[in-house]
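Chapter summary example.
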Amino acid sequence: MSTPDWLADATFYQIFPERFANGDPTLDPPGVEPWGAAPTRENFFGGDFAGITARLDHIVSVGANAIYLTPIFEADTNHRYDAKDYFTIDHRLGDLNAFRRFLDAAHQRGIRVVLDAVFNHCGDGHWAFRDVIENEAASEYVNWFSVEGFPVTSHPVPNYRTCSGCYYLPKWNAYNPEVRAHHYDVARHWIEQGIDGWRLDVPYFINHSFWRGFRDVVKGLGEDLYIVAEEWRDPEEWLQGDLADGTMNYTLRDLILGFTADGSVDAGALVSGMNMLRARIPDGFRSGMLNLLGSHDTERVLTRHGGDVRAALRAYSLLFAAEGAPMLYYGDEVGLTGENDPGCRGTMPWDESDWSHELLDGIRSLSRARAECAALRRGAQEVSAFDDDTVLVIRRADDGAVVVAIVHRGSGTRIPVRALPGLVEGHAWRVLLGDAAFDKDGCIRLAAGGVTYLTTFTNETRP
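The structure predicted for these 463 residues follows.
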């Protein structure tokens, strides 16, 4: 078993819907904040599906052809991880027709859409939990949750199981067949609406038998549907063919940012870590890994790099060169800053004068290189270090094409061409992107903090 083939060519764009674009002010909730104000855990800015639909061309312009949306169902909070009804679009985002218009417009542009499967917990406003509060032991839903006694109380300590002790997030009893049937019906319903996959929220809090059933439901509706698990440490347990097609690759993120942002990881440690990580991911699943540098659960990429755009671009250069599908978190491509939640959930700036065009242009160049070069998308990965500050990510395609991404964080370096992986006779190197130059001594010269992608050519393929 392996991940759907389209993942090898995918570049994802993650959207936190409430903060991306306000396209229909008539949906704004009372007390909506002005766009661009400071984000908090409680405030609303009016992002909606009309806004996302109107800005799809921007997403295409950065090279993305897949979208991952954080929760979109009826809820009380701005993050919507507290669902009240999984079958209803949140009224502040629009209605089912607005969602369908978005989905149709995305698909017309060749963009696939993945939704967030939040099945470990719901919100305390969910209709089933409200019924338990009202009817107590007599509720037909009392065993959908794990309630210790009555009346149901949330303070000072909830007398029911929750997600991480958060009183407004009661935990589902996933051992209950009725709960499983409800969740599987949710999965079927939105696939029938036309979505292309599910991202599993905190799946490690639910037993594997539930997720095996979930996979059976999803894959029974289409083998091309993508299932990606949130995972912060150990990917392999999800990649045995019975659970997920990939995981969110936070381990790769930690390695890359340790090298480009913190200086806590040198090239040798980065290489060792990337090679060990690759060995842990079973054959057939590497293209399904969702590679990221930032998300709604981390500080912003530029913030992590202390505002250093060139350092951030070095991180993105490694991300786009690695096996797996790269993912951009909305706003990171234009230099949006912010610390972890709630700072990382600010509104997308649409005034282009506020953008880092150096960062945006760099990311667009990386996306173009990846789109134009099959070896960058589908080639097998090898990683090596030239010195403590220089990493070579090598991708070899089945047709013999080779791409080498050289990411250097020091004051400048010269790399002998002979240090690059051996070539097929009759092939030579050319610069795919970056500012490297070949000198007469047979070396590649990189400026301070330089990045370059090199690819092979023959006389027949030389541009």
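To summarize the output: The first strand starts at residue 12 and ends at 15.
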